[in-house]
């Protein structure tokens, strides 16, 4: 359980894949459940093998996920923060039954998260099968939320550079260093990295006055580290991360 709650959900691949560009896929619909996950998300359990989104419910974006996966969580946070209407489909990462056929059709690599956007004009549906690709799509408006929320075009050049730096440091440094620490590796190395991230934090959000893709990318992993080891209270060490 400790491993699962940290960094051991090893189904994610950092490499961006061409499946995230655009391809024809059968997006299975289902009658929308009355279980509302949020004001924008609806959870569905039945998955008939018919293509297309149920347009009567005006939901064009489907989010295929497992709620416990930190990589899927950062995409989930981005969808919520952008106020994008979406339909949630949860799949098991493991188990004797395996993943359903429709899931493999959307992403032959078998990883979560997946965001599938229905083309209302009858063209090709667009599938983003990687958490970083999903964040990119939210940031440039290909996955549509409320106007202005999380769009990179709404940020200054300097802010965009900071967002990119945060995302790179989370994926390339914090995730592997954090995983190593959880498995008994160097905790001082993690503390040193946290101190560096703490110094980068502008406040109240990571790059300034409003939430950005940097916050979405960082939260699942920094939260797990805080749960496992705790953030220090000193402002010059990790106190700003604690406040964030």
Q: What structural category characterises the helix and strand content?
A: alpha/beta
How many β-strand stretches? 5
Task: Determine Rg (CA atoms, Å).
Answer: 18 Å
Task: Report the average pLDDT across residues.
Answer: 80
**Largest sheet data:** 5 strands, mixed
Query: Ranges with pLDDT <50 over ≥5 residues?
Result: 1-26, 29-39, 41-56
Please state the overall shape, judged from the principal axes of the Cα atoms. Answer: globular
Notes on the protein architecture:
By secondary structure, the chain is α/β, with parallel strands linked by helices. The protein has helices at 2-5, 70-81, 101-106, 131-140, 157-182, 187-200, 213-229, 235-243; strands at residues 41-44, 61-65, 86-90, 114-117, 126-128. The protein has a five-stranded mixed sheet. A hairpin with an 8-residue loop joins strand 4 and strand 5 (126-128). Helix 6 (187-200) packs across helix 8. The chain starts with a helix and ends with a helix.
Topology:
Elements (H helix, E strand, L loop, with lengths): L1 H4 L35 E4 L16 E5 L4 H12 L4 E5 L10 H6 L7 E4 L8 E3 L2 H10 L16 H26 L4 H14 L12 H17 L5 H9 L1
Parallel strand pairs: 1-3, 2-3
Antiparallel strand pairs: 2-4, 4-5
């Amino acid at each position: 359980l400790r491993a699962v709650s940290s960094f051991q959900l090893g189904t994610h691949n950092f490499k961006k894949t061409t499946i995230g560009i655009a391809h024809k896929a059968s997006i299975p619909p289902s009658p929308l459940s009355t279980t509302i996950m949020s004001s924008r998300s609806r959870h569905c359990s039945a998955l008939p093998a018919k293509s297309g989104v149920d347009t009567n419910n005006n939901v064009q974006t489907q989010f295929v996920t497992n709620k416990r996966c930190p990589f899927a969580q950062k995409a989930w946070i981005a969808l919520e923060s952008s106020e994008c209407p979406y339909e949630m489909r949860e799949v098991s990462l493991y188990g004797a039954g395996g993943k359903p056929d429709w899931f493999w059709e959307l992403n032959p690599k078998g990883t979560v998260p997946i965001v599938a956007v229905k083309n209302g004009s009858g063209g090709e549906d667009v599938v983003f099968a990687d958490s970083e690709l999903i964040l990119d799509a939210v940031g440039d408006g290909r996955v549509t939320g409320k106007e202005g929320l999380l769009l990179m075009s709404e940020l200054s050049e300097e802010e965009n550079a900071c967002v990119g730096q945060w995302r790179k440091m989370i994926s390339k440094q914090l995730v592997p260093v954090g995983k190593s620490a959880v498995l008994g590796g160097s905790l001082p190395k993690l503390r040193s990295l946290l101190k560096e991230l703490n110094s980068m934090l502008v406040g109240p959000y990571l790059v300034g006055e409003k939430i950005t893709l940097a916050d979405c990318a960082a939260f699942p992993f920094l939260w797990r580290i805080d749960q496992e080891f705790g953030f220090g209270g000193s402002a010059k060490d990790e106190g700003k991360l604690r406040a964030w």
